[in-house]
Specification:
Keywords: Membrane, Transmembrane, Transmembrane helix. It is a multi-pass membrane protein. It is found in: Membrane. With about 350 residues, this protein is mostly helical. It has one domain (about 10-360): NCX, central ion-binding region (A middle domain of Talin 1, Up-down Bundle). About 75% of the residues lie in helices and about 0% in strands. It has helices spanning about 5-10, 10-25, 35-60, 65-90, 95-125, 130-155, 165-190, 210-245, 250-275, 280-295, 295-305, 315-335, 340-360, and strands at about 125-130, 340. Strands 1-2 form a two-stranded antiparallel ribbon. Helix 6 packs antiparallel against helix 7, helix 7 packs antiparallel against helix 11 and helix 9 packs antiparallel against helix 10.
């Protein structure tokens, strides 16, 4: 194996098979704290390996296809975690999908974007990006969030912040349509709007991976995704037990899921920002937010056919206020096409407010 190959693969080749072994040993059990911690290590390793191998394949296909692939890979993990927790969790599950999707939106719009802008602007004086492409992405995210998370709060056909079956079906189809339209715009019609403004020669990667390396990473990616879903099912009880033991609201479970699956995206976004490729960071952030809604909501809509209990998607007043602030600040950040460190700091403060108010509403 060449040096470039070992740099791409290394421990990430071993992580998915080892996680699969852990899954086979722990399947069907209700692990205690020590065992749950060890399983959690395997789960995190599988998540990191999954997104790493997605990045290898993404590097082969180029931008903006790479960012799109990473976003979809993360969303597959997120959907698997949500469905398994809803199917096997012992606590409240009616709001799990809403809390997880909303957490993903807040973490991407404020956490990943804030980190990328802060790092990029601090290192290169200003963080420069394409306002047209990024503005289109943000508009799509806001529309998706409004349609699936805000509208259910105000519908009156069913009591509570829930959709009727017909409304949920419409929201699912509309979400897929919006996401599909954006993907077409990003990858076909106006691809140039989503490429880095300053396209540097050194992008932080070695030479392009060979076909063999790419296919190997694709296979390991699939294995890692399947393993993540299985380990999440095993960990569902310990996660809820830990949240209950700490006395945190049940919405914290959704935040834990979102933080887990978006951590590798955050690392990739910061790395791109350090290389003055903030557009790639924003593609990752808004693409992940978009996929979290546009793909998760339809998947949950289908899963709700056999899952028992109501599905509450409408946001609470406090969540609506945080989403409104994030949308307004996001628009003001994107419009100029460049950002100062202050812009990143504002987004990070909004993220901190979201995390604090989740555990202390």
């Amino acid at each position: 194996m060449s040096a470039s190959t070992s740099g791409r693969l290394g421990w990430t080749v071993l992580a998915p098979p080892l996680a699969t072994v852990v899954l086979a040993i722990s399947w069907g059990s209700h692990p205690g704290p020590v065992a749950a911690s060890l399983i959690g290590v395997a789960l995190v390793g599988a998540v990191l390996a999954a997104v790493h191998h997605a990045e290898v394949v993404a590097h082969r296909v180029g931008e903006p296809f790479g960012s799109l692939l990473l976003a979809v890979a993360v969303t597959v993990i997120e959907v698997g975690l949500i469905v398994t927790l809803m199917a096997s969790g012992s606590g409240e599950t009616a709001t799990l999908a809403r809390d997880t999707v909303f957490a993903a939106v807040m973490i991407t719009l404020n956490g990943i974007v804030g980190l990328a802008l802060l790092v990029g602007a601090m290192r290169h004086h200003l963080a420069v990006f394409n306002a047209e492409g990024t503005g289109s992405a943000l508009a799509t995210v806001i529309s998706l969030a409004g349609l699936t998370l805000v509208v259910p709060t105000f519908t009156v056909s069913e009591p509570g912040p829930v959709f009727t079956g017909q409304q949920l079906a419409f929201a699912a189809v509309a979400s897929l349509a919006l996401y599909g339209a954006f993907v077409f715009t990003q990858t076909v019609r106006h691809r140039e709007f989503f490429l880095p403004v300053r396209d540097l020669d050194g992008d932080g990667h070695a030479d392009l991976p060979t076909n063999r390396e790419s296919w190997t990473s694709l296979g390991l990616l699939v294995l890692a995704l399947v393993t993540v879903v299985g380990l999440a099912k095993v960990e569902s009880y310990p996660i809820e037990d830990a949240v209950n033991a700490l006395g945190f609201p049940h919405a914290t479970v959704g935040v834990v899921i979102a933080l887990l699956v978006l951590l590798p995206e955050s690392i990739a976004a910061v790395r791109a920002a350090r290389l003055d490729r903030v557009q790639i960071s924003l593609n990752l952030a808004y693409g992940s937010a978009m996929a979290s809604i546009g793909l998760t909501i339809p998947a949950i809509a289908v899963a709700s056919i056999w899952l028992d209990g109501p599905l509450e998607l409408g946001l609470a007043p406090l969540q609506l206020a945080l989403l409104f602030l994030s949308a307004v600040v996001g628009v003001l950040t994107v419009v100029p096409g460049r950002a100062k460190p202050l812009n990143g700091a504002v987004h990070l403060v909004l993220l901190a407010a979201f995390l604090f108010l989740t555990v202390a509403p």
